[in-house]
Amino acid sequence: MKITKTSQSRISEVDFSNLPFGNTFSDHMLISEFSNGQWSEPEIKPYGPLSFTPALHTLHYGQAIFEGQKAYYREDGSIGIFRPEANAKRLNHSARRMFMPEFPEELFMEGIRALVDIDREWVPKAPDHSLYLRPFMFGSSEFVAARPSEKYIFCIITSPVGPYYAGNVKVKVEETYTRSASGGVGSTKCAGNYGGAFFATDQARKEGYTQVIWTDHKDHQLVEESGTMNIAFIIDDTFITPPLSDRILGGITRDSILTMLRDRDYLKVEERPVQVEEVINAAKEGLLQEAFGMGTAAVISPISTIGFRGTDYEVGTPADGYAMRIKKELTELRSGAAEDPYGWMVQL
Ligand SMILES: *Cc1c(COP(=O)(O)O)cnc(C)c1O
Q: How many CB atoms are closer than 10 A to CB 78?
């Protein structure tokens, strides 16, 4: 791997006690280019602009995918990256569906380790802080014919982030707009899935909600995801989450929580289709104990209100509830305060 270090670190300019999510970038980035059927040797170099002509393929046709993951400062002073192989695999799942070249997993792993290592001073030490890692890939040919790009860029940038306080999350059951459809690209982390969701989210904001609960594209009777997170409900001391499909993104947080819960016995676990009606009836009858989103940015984001056809249903967000217990257990595994029986932390 080619490494060019910055001559002037910017770290002294950063206020680590005030880190709005995704606004501050560390000193270095990793980049590799695909052309003539091959990836170039990845290069680590100072973070900075890339330059292209207006014919950049991805601006017109949207072959663009990304990942989101985190590196943590651990109690023993080491740095751990959480489940990076899972992100490497998911990036390639997205790449296949978007007709983009796969990026070799070994190179991904080697590259992400080297990049975090070179910027290890940028991994915040305060509790609940982390270095957010953003691998992404896009079509970088420069032509405007509607066929797949021939060249691609794979890049990783990193950003120190503080705790993610979503506050009280009020979600609206969305029955007009759709995030993804069967046969579509909903299970990939492609850029367009986000672009297509902003309008519906903004509509919900104007009605006083924070996010939407996405439902199925056909008749909006099944719960699918909560904004850009997977969703779970606690009903009758059972953790219930919809099963993965080509409409639902396979979250690594979701998978980690399912794995941990199945090894513990304080909650029953059900991965099965969830009807909107079932959730609303449970809320009406006071049986909906908790509801929350699961994802890398916030880890767990408790839902306090569910809006359905103009009526708001309150959901408990107990400080000593299941959501907070699960979050604590995952946080302890990452920090090293608890065992890591699954070998999820890749240590530097
Ligand atoms: C990224 C993402 C998630 C969460 O995935 P994690 O790997 O847990 O961060 C869930 N839903 C959607 C639509 C996403 O894009």
A: 13
CATH topology classification for 169-335 = D-amino Acid Aminotransferase; Chain A, domain 2 (3.20.10)
Q: Is 230 in the pocket of ligand 1 (CB under 6 A)?
A: yes
Q: What is the pLDDT of residue 44?
A: 98
Q: Specify the pairing of strand 38-39 against strand 2-3.
A: unpaired
User: Which residue's CA is minimally distant from atom 14 of ligand 1?
Assistant: 228
Q: Which H helix or E strand runs over 134? A: strand 130-139
Query: Per-residue confidence at 335, pLDDT binned at 50, 70, 90?
Result: very high
Q: Does residue 252's CB lie within 6 angstroms of at least one atom of ligand 1?
A: yes
- Is any ligand 1 atom within 6 A of the Cβ of residue 212? no
Q: Is the Cβ–Cβ distance between 200 and 176 less than 8 Å?
A: yes
Check residue 168 and give its pLDDT.
Answer: 79
| Class of the domain covering 2-163 | alpha beta
Instruction: Please check the confidence at residue 167 and state whether its pLDDT lies above 80.
Output: no
